[in-house]
Amino acid sequence: CVVLDVQAACPDATVTQELLKEGFHRDLLVKVELSLVGEDAGGCAVAVRTRLPPGIYVDPYELESLQQHNLTKAVLIPDVIDVEAPEYLATDLLVLLYMEPDPWCSHCFRATLPVHGRYHRPAEERGEALVVLKSPEVLVCCCDNRLSTMCWKPAEVEAPCSGRTNSPCQWYSVTHKPAYEESILRVPVGLRQHTSFVCVVTLLATVLCSSLILAALCKYGCFS
């Protein structure tokens, strides 16, 4: 678990999220700063629960590789994701992202999640589609301590507190104030007026490549 060596009563949190890099392949950086005063919260883990809209997804194979190297930890719901589906055939994705302590801030936590933009339908005018990411929910799980129900709201999350055990424990939702209500991912899309040109170029490229493969096969192939 992520241990909080503080006394905390009715904590709240400040949340910021930022999209790093450009294009379709981005990193979602989430930061949480807790304000804890009064009640013992030692032995607690911190996570955020965020809902990704259909226009963006997490590659489960990439995430599995990162988790094997202890670079990030997250739970995907559902855990089976069609990474090839376009935006208009995809569904929302719920992500529980475990946070790590920020070495530069004693009450701060952070985590990075690789995300990818999906292909969208061609647009009429603008060459980009906007994918809106809402502010995530902050969760705290105290495996060893009982927290005051006066301050903490139980959350319906069935996931372990940390990687130490697979047994689910009780998560609590923490009141938080987002630095920004939402973040926006701008995904490049094609324009409808370019459809004919793209189809012609694609057809010509297909015919040319097929001809080159056929010619090489006839020249170097071994036929018995």
TrEMBL record:
This is Phosphatidylinositol-glycan biosynthesis class X protein. The lineage of its organism: Eukaryota, Metazoa, Chordata, Craniata, Vertebrata. Stabilizing subunit of the glycosylphosphatidylinositol-mannosyltransferase I complex which catalyzes the transfer of the first mannose, via an alpha-1,4 bond from a dolichol-phosphate-mannose (Dol-P-Man) to the glucosaminyl acyl phosphatidylinositol (GlcN-(acyl)PI) intermediate to generate alpha-D-Man-(1->4)-alpha-D-GlcN-(1->6)-(1-radyl,2-acyl-sn-glycero-3-phospho)-2-acyl-inositol and participates in the sixth step of the glycosylphosphatidylinositol-anchor biosynthesis. Probably acts by stabilizing the mannosyltransferase PIGM. The chain crosses the membrane at residues 195-218. Keywords: Endoplasmic reticulum, Glycoprotein, GPI-anchor biosynthesis, Membrane, Transmembrane, Transmembrane helix. PANTHER family: PHOSPHATIDYLINOSITOL-GLYCAN BIOSYNTHESIS CLASS X PROTEIN. It comes from the Eukaryota. One of its GO terms (biological process) is GPI anchor biosynthetic process. It is found in: Endoplasmic reticulum membrane. The keyword Endoplasmic reticulum applies. Belongs to the PIGX family.
